[in-house]
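RECORD TYPE: protein structure
NAME: MFS transporter
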Amino acid sequence: MSSAKKSSLFTIIGASSVGTMIEWYDFYIFGSLASIISTKFFPQGNPTAAFLSTLATFAAGFVVRPFGALFFGRLGDLIGRKYTFMVTLMLMGGATFLIGCVPGYETIGFMAPLLILVLRLLQGLALGGEYGGAATYVAEHSPANQRGFMTSWIQTTATVGLFVSLLVIMGTRAALTKEQFNDWGWRVPFWVSILMVLVSYLIRKNMEESPIFAKAKASGKTSTNPLKESFGNKYNFKFVLLALFGAVMGQGVIWYTGQFYAMSFLEKTMNIAKDQVDSLMFIALMLGTPFFLVFGWLSDKLGRKWIMMGGMLIAICSYWFIYESMYQTTNLQHKTVQTSSTTASVVTHTNNQQDSIYSTSTTYTDGTVAVVEKKLPLQNGLPIVEAGKNKQDISTSIHINSSDKWTLIFWVFVQVLFVTMVYGPIAAFLVEMFPTKIRYTSMSLPYHIGNGVFGGLLPAVATYLATTAKANNHPQWYLQGLWYPIGVALVCLIIGVLYLNPKDKEIND
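PREDICTED:
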């Protein structure tokens, strides 16, 4: 490849990757701020129910992604890759900005969660069209022997988008007081996205159409009905199903386990302070992200299939041990108390309801600090307690020591390595499965069902399984959420090993 062509290719990769990264950033700040959003847009009578409702709304954006894949994939195969993912970029940016503008539940009632749901669905539709366009666009510019490496830059964008979302959130938290951030500062990351989208639009608008698609269009070989040719043709539909159940389904649950469920587990199950969770996730993602390129490059040398299957197998066999190790790292029952103190205060709400807040701060000999808050409603200065019922709400925030922090960074990093094995090669793998005239449509649907449905539902399903197990006093309730990703990945591994053809195809049709 000449230096001029190589420079042009990296310009194309850069422009495609930046835009896709911004769309992932837009999509993931909702999940990163789920614990705060649950207090702003949902009724607060039951904090656990509000958080689960927020996760369900988060998952709704994933569930609708296949519809975005169908709609925008069809447009991409009819009119071109470039213009389609320009539209998805603007749609995503607008929806994200508006989420930051919606008034809270206390102001507009049930209109708040309804508007958030609508905007979340628009985000999902936009992302459903973005990824397939960007991956296809880069792949159709890349030489065959470097396709895995070149498209792996697109694969980094999902993790980099999460990485940037954490960076912006951490920066906003640092610039504001805790009260300011909880009051209005959490909206800032949503507002910032509109500036990034405008920059990406200016970069992308001067890009040329994919040469392979342009050639097919000039010779009249584009599809007149991409949906029918993708899913009405039995031969092609077989590959759509194989892509979904033999590769993307397992990749989806491993991706969301290693990054989103890990984050939720640290914050909600292990009760680690949110700022520390953001910090250790940030470091683990920063260390792990380059391996997307490593495994993309290796897939050009060794083939895509066995790298992805290997990542699934290792993840399935090690998740239980990893999460048990993570949980025990901050298990206070195994730590020795050094000092402990309790303070009490009375909070009066706008409806004149009073709560007595008891805050107990305990320091352990290894440097861990746990703050436990108990809230008891008051009436005329007296606690409100129903016979046989404990009316206290308990929240725990654990500030971990440096040694425990690096232990947890290591375990999250290991999970990110699994993610890079299954996700790094998959763009090239999917692109190579389908012909040019229906590629955008055919690859987008299995990708977004695998990631949007099977992966996107993971935080809500896993949290529900763990919560139910805890309510039933299961001794290892904190591990029960893992049955979902392990089960899905195992089914995908079996199908992939038995039925996927590891021989890569050339993009020359």
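COMMENT: The chain has two domains: 3-330+402-499, 332-399.
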